[in-house]
Amino acid sequence: MIHFNAAQNWAVDFSSISLIDKIKIFFTHKWPTDVESVAIHEIGHVLGLDHSSIPEAVMYFETPSGKKKVDLTLDDVNGDQALYGSNPNVNLDSLKRKNSASKSFGLKEI
């Protein structure tokens, strides 16, 4: 089960934050957390992935407030494939170009 804390300041689309809210954020330095980024990260845990040591990875231990991190990195995909195998019909060339090669994906021991 994935639980989202109601006390957290969540956002779905940072571009829709009102001017008044942006002024409040400027003075309080409390940016909302992107709910989609957290959901994708937590689904990774449900699938058996642990935290990655790669800061750009979805499975990195934190997503900075005010940032959206929803694009899987090669590290995220490698971790998933280590658990569930790969699909030969999926082309990962775009991920390979976008991400540096890494073997530090996080696997959760169950």
UniProtKB/TrEMBL annotation:
GO terms, biological process: collagen catabolic process; extracellular matrix organization; proteolysis
Positions annotated to bind Zn(2+): 41, 45, 51, 59
Top-rank taxon, per record: Eukaryota
Database matches in Pfam families: Peptidase_M10
GO MF terms held by the record: metalloendopeptidase activity; zinc ion binding
Record's protein name: Peptidase M10 metallopeptidase domain-containing protein
Source species: Papaver nudicaule (Iceland poppy)
Record note on cofactor: Binds 2 Zn(2+) ions per subunit.
Chain ranges of the Peptidase M10 metallopeptidase domain: 2-85
Keyword Protease (UniProt): yes
Active-site annotation: 42
Organism lineage string: Eukaryota, Viridiplantae, Streptophyta, Embryophyta, Tracheophyta
